[in-house]
Amino acid sequence: MYFSFVSGDPALDLTGTVLSRRDEPVDALATPADLERWVAECDELPDRVTADSATFESALSLREAFYRLALDRVLDRHFDPRSLEIVNDTAAGPLPTVELSDAGLRMTGDLPAVLSHIARSGIAVLADPHVCLKECGRTGCTRLYLDRSRGARRTWCGMDECGNRVKAAAYRARRRARPQGQ
Ligand SMILES: [Zn+2]
After folding, report:
1. Phi/psi of residue 68, each to 5°?
2. Contacts of 81 (CB under 8 A, 6+ apart)
3. How many angstroms separate the alpha carbon of residue 30 from the centre of ligand 1?
4. How far, in Å, is the centroid of ligand 1 from the Cα of 160?
5. How many other C-beta atoms are found inside a 10 Å radius of the C-beta of residue 93?
6. pLDDT tens, 103-152?
7. Is the Cβ–Cβ distance between 67 and 81 less than 8 Å?
8. Which of 47, 73, 127, 135 has a C-alpha 20 to 30 A away from that of 145?
9. Per-domain residue ranges for the chain?
């Protein structure tokens, strides 16, 4: 399964590793090795980490807690206290090291440090009253993303992921609706 990094924040991208949460959830992080690959593929995180079963469980628990808080934010409700505790506790851990060079930023650290970084990044998103946090407009897609477009008019988590699929489906529907023989 391939990963998408379209949400604009690693904590949100992490929640997006469960697809179609409301209908038939598909979890792209089935094993610790999947998590290692996800971290490696995420541009903002270290190239290499090792996940054992305990840190894998922590990552999944952070993911679900953060998803709950993000959804609370989207639905304009109070944050779930248990999820706040999990995200805040994770954010309090040691952090990765960052170095600047001509090649850009390089981050190094083990998985617990990466999880702290992700939790902090997610906290910054949810604490910012000006961010426009949305759920994808395609029915069935439950991905959350930051809309940074001008006028906040972005509708899909990603064009490849959902936008083009919706447009193609609408095109097929229009063709079907066209009277025969014309
Ligand atoms: Zn989508």
Report:
1. -60, -45
2. none
3. 21
4. 9
5. 15
6. 999 999 999 999 999 999 999 999 999 999 999 999 999 999 999 999 99
7. no
8. 47
9. 10-177
CA of 54 to the centre of ligand 1 (A): 30
| Nearest-angstrom CA–CA distance, 144 and 5 | 11
Cα(40) to centroid(ligand 1), Å: 22
In the structure, ligand 1 is a single-atom ion and the residues with CB under 5 Å from it are 136, 138, 141, 143, 157, 162
Q: Which CATH number fits domain 10-177: 1.10.3300.10, 1.10.630.10, 1.20.210.10, 1.20.1530.10?
A: 1.10.3300.10
Cα distance between residue 143 and residue 12, in whole Å: 8
Ligand 1 mean position, distance from CA 157 (Å): 4
pLDDT tens-digit readout, 75-111: 999 999 999 999 999 999 999 999 999 999 999 999 9
Residues 27-52: pLDDT tens digits?
999 999 999 999 999 988 999 999 99
